[in-house]
Amino acid sequence: MSRQSDYTKNISYQVYLSLKDKIMTIEYKPGDILKEVEISEEFKLSRTPIRAAIQELKNEGFIEFNNRNIVTPMSLNDYIKIFQIRENLELLSVKLATLNCNEENILALEENCELQKKSLYKKSYQPLKFLNLDRQFHLSMAKISGNNFLVEELKRFYDLFYRYNYICGFENRKDYAIVEHENLISMIKNGNIALAEKQMKDHMANVNSLIIMSLPCKLNNLSSDSNND
Question: What are the record keywords, sorted (predicted)?
């Protein structure tokens, strides 16, 4: 591969990360039109890397094409489907992590929990930093499984889930989430698969309960905001 193609691929990846971040944090709202020309001007790049970044986001389900590129809409029905898949991936992840973990793995998970705690009590608390640490925790646990296919699928569905978690007041659960993470580590460390799976099931149920309760109102607010733009 030539240096030029390496450069183009790297630039495209940076654009992809930037666009994905804006979608996941609702800076680009569901249904927003993404115009290649405008994005190209924003990044001061040709349309080739922009087009490649958008295509990757289409592949992942964040953008869909309907005569034009739009940010994939959000709905209660889609959320339920995403949750069903993510929950089952998480249950498989914790089972395999319990079977395969070692002291180094446990230490890494514990260090992540400590970072979560520290992020809460800093004067300059950053919600996105906490949410990204949560993402890192779940993906780190999946990596312990040794199953790369599981890691990639969980990454995809965690990221699709992220938008719903972001708009539905995850901050109301952040203290509880850390306690639940610590309980998961304890079950994994003890090698108790049944209790680890139950803890994960409870953890996911608690997250789901919060989102299901607030999602219709949040989606309605998003729709109203978009209509007023």
Answer: DNA-binding, Transcription, Transcription regulation
